[in-house]
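Human:
Care to share another protein and its fold?

Assistant:
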Amino acid sequence: MSQPAEGKSLEAHELFRDPQKHYVRVHGWVVVARSRLHTLMETNRNFGLRYMTLCGKDAIDIFLFKREQLIKDDGRGFPSVYYIENHYPSFAEVQPLLGRTKGKRISFEELVNQQWFEQLVRKQPFDVINLDFSGNCFPRNDPPFSTTLKALNRIIQLQSGNHFDLFVTFKALRSVENSAAVQELASNMKKNFSVHQEVEDAFKRQFRSMNPSQLSDVDYGLFLLATFPKIIFGFGANNGFNVSCPMKFVYKRSPPDKSPYQIVKFLFSMSAQAASQSFSEESRRHESLTAAYEASVIQDLNVAPIDVDQELVKQTSLAKQLKLDLQSVLELRVPFGK
């Protein structure tokens, strides 16, 4: 489940304002989105990013992007933004705040299978898609290839032929995951070891000589950070994209009276390869995508995730700076027309 169901209150909605989450907004999302906009401006783009988001009740990411001049408003809303929120109280709160910005109360998993949404994306594909899920990656009541994974594959299909960035956030708590899915993910990585020795070498260098199954038991957050990108690399390659994951983040949550868990965040860059015009071109394209996929798997294992909690400990004034920065964003949140 990507977002809370109606009437269900999750602690995720109360944690949008902490320094850990804002660290990723400022040092991850803004950095990548700014780079994307700079690339687009070289093609005379002048209206900002086309941005899709699961923004939550506060829409902090939208107003942060406005402050950083990554999107523009027209006095009535944000014309290039599309938001979704499935949690009714949150949608009721954010809708008047965003004015005439296009948005809908619907889950991401439902949205991507709507014909009208397919037409919207085909006509105006997004530059940045931010899927800040509040749930886990492999729900127990779903098969290993979960509805959320199917929806991720679908949005990549819809974006075919267009370069974009994809941000994905999950809650990492091993005890609530579908065990078969976790085992399948670990086994899939092990299969890569038998084919590519450099994949095994990179994995063991990064994770103290543990194998994937051991890592899933010892540190499930790190396990997802190491193995989940491979899923998106595969979805991308099957739909004509070279994919990389230049930035990954992790931090801990310890809610009162509940099991502690981790938040894992992935920032994917999706680079579309040109469509083939002949059988020989298609063969070369397939070979290129396969080689890029294999290279991405190895490269990703050499990218150390950023531990946000450690960054806040190392830089003692950073948490205060982030809280002040967040406050400046919150002060921008004036409903349109007021």
Observations:
- The first helix runs from residue 19 to 41.
- Residues 11-330 form a domain with the Rossmann fold fold (CATH 3.40.50).
